[in-house]
Amino acid sequence: MSTLTNVAAQDSSLPKIRHTARVVEIGSLLMAAVLATFYLVSSIYIASHRLFWFDEIFTVHLARLPHWTAIWTALAHATDSQPPIYYLVVRVFDQLLGHNDIAIRLPSALAMAAGLLLTFDCARRLTDGPHGLIALAVLPCSFLPYYGYEARPYGIYFMLAALALWVWTYNGKGKWLPAIFFGTTFLLGATIHYYFGLCLVPYALWEATRWRPWKPPSAKLIAGTVGAIVPVAIFSPLIVAFSNQFRQTFWGHPSVWLLGKVFSDVFPSGLVLLALVMVWVTLVGAEDKTIASPPMQPGEAVGWLFLCIPLAGFVVAYKTNAFADRYLIGTLPGIAVAFACWIWRGFRNASLVSAAIFLLLTTWGLANQLKIVEHPEVVDRAGQQTVTRRNLTLEGRLLGDGKRFILFSDAMVYLEAQYYFQHPEGCALILAPREEDPDYDSGRLVLNLARYYPLHIWALEDLTKHARETALIAPPPSTLNALDQAGFKAEVRFSEPFRVVYMH
Predict the structure, then answer these.
(1) What pLDDT, on the 0 to 100 scale, is given for residue 155?
(2) More confident residue, 88 or 249
(3) How many of the other CB atoms lie within 10 Å of CB of 228?
(4) Which of 129, 242, 360, 436 is most exposed by smallest CB count within 10 Å?
């Protein structure tokens, strides 16, 4: 009799359990939408309060060429290193929204928000809604938020990497349709960044561990491989044109030191957060040990294999001489999903542990983003925005002294000043004369861009002709020595914020 009573009680509780689970899932979806919206809106706000830096200005100038076919021509002359499709995407947003800085950065913000939701849903399908939120919360603790307000392709790169993982872990009916979607994702990814093909590595490794002589590769892997190869083959003339013009050390020659630094760059606060998570787990304790943990799912295993992407990038970079942490942003979705699955397997019945981990990660990510919302100027890659703002304060003083021309020897500083100065026609750049000069390759990039955009590149003869009308910004000794030999005498007009020299 008591047994029948217990069974009846359990049966009557099932609707309540299902209702609670449904409420939790709906709540998780709403929370994911709120977080993604916050990062979208805050990224747009930050984007509207930051100056473009060197790389972004190349994006602007290429996207705004008179005709879209000119983008291919410009890239064939080594004006930038990205595939042409990215600039077409930016061009569409820029033309639709009226040629403003937000429009140029908006594709990155939208893509980052979409990638957050895709990563959430991928982890949700493998675990549940709350642990899907943990996967989402991991991502803003990385370097990802920066690429949500930068006018470069890495936000879209991340979104497509998340989409590829979402398609791979999809267990719906059919064989060829998911394969087509997977291949299409890699096709799109390789048209956004040439290194997107590295995202195939975890899937290939997973297939390799399960390969048998009588078993053909999965249709998804074949489709993804084809999708990654085709754009690279089509754009190979652009790749060769760029790589042939610059030294091996210019774009990021690989080294063991850089490889070891990648993971700390991708997750700047990774060790701190991991330590806090472990402390909380220790204090609260795990779930009931009488309940066995389920085995690792294929989706989680593939996610952990995303840790191999930097290793693959390191190997590839010995051929391409291009190794940078941002090229490996495709590692993020897999790591986030794998971490969420690991928490779910170990603590799925210890809801307090999972909730605390989610709150810790979310608070950390929100705090960092809100700090930048309050002070967008703190995001200053290599100090270039600070330099540009200081140059903007100099323009009026130099023009007031009767100087018609403002001459820069640093290509990065010149391009940013030329973009923001009220009288850009008076800005000029004198190129570094020797290959061993650290600014030589940046100057070559600007020189290539000058074929398609009205930039003023001076030779020493031009400077000699206009020396008395020119203010030199932080001139190198070689330039001053050449002017001295030509009979001009240098006078330091300002020492702050930069050394400004007049010639007499």
Answers:
(1) 97
(2) 88
(3) 21
(4) 436
Look at residues 132, 195, 138, 129 and name the one whose alpha carbon lies nearest to residue 161.
195
Tokens read off for 9: 């009680």
Answer yes or no: are the C-beta atoms of 134 and 150 closer than 8 Å: no
φ, ψ (nearest 5 deg) of residue 352: -65, -40
Assess contact for 132 and 124: CB atoms under 8 A.
yes
| Cis before 497? omega within 30 | yes
Closest CA to 346 of 378, 300, 396: 300
- pLDDT exceeds 80 at position 134: yes
CB atoms within 10 A of CB 9: 9
Judged by DSSP in three states, 79 sits in coil
Q: In the structure, what pLDDT confidence band is assigned to residue 290 with cuts at 50, 70 and 90?
A: very low
> According to the model, what pLDDT value does residue 283 have?
72
Q: What percent of the chain has pLDDT over 70?
A: 91
* Max intra-chain CA distance, the chain: 112
Instruction: Confirm if 474 and 452 have CB atoms less than 8 A apart.
Output: no
Beta bridge partners of 407: 428, 472
For residues 391 and 414, what is the distance between their CA atoms, to the nearest angstrom? 10
Q: Would the CA dihedral through 451, 452, 457, 462 be positive or negative? A: positive
- Which segment, 165-174, 187-196, 273-282, is predicted with the most confidence on average? 187-196
Question: Burial level of 143, CB count in 10 A (0-12/13-18/19+)?
Answer: middle
Residues 195, 211: Cα–Cα separation, whole Å? 26
Angstrom distance (rounded) from CA 308 to CA 202: 7
Element (H, E) at 63: helix 54-63
Inter-residue contact 463 to 483 (CB < 8 Å): yes
Encoded tokens for 349: 């019945």
Two structure tokens written together for 74: 């410009």
Helix 54-63 × helix 411-420 angle, to 10° = 50
- DSSP annotation of 150: S
Task: Give the pLDDT confidence of 41-99 residue by residue, as tens digits.
Answer: 999 999 999 999 989 999 999 999 999 899 999 999 888 889 999 999 999 999 999 88
d(CA 194, CA 375): 33
Residue 409: partners with Cβ closer than 8 Å, 6 or more residues away: 429, 430, 432, 439, 472, 473, 474, 475, 476, 479
Residue 426: alpha-carbon gap to chain centroid: 34
Confidence of residue 142 (pLDDT cuts 50, 70, 90): very high
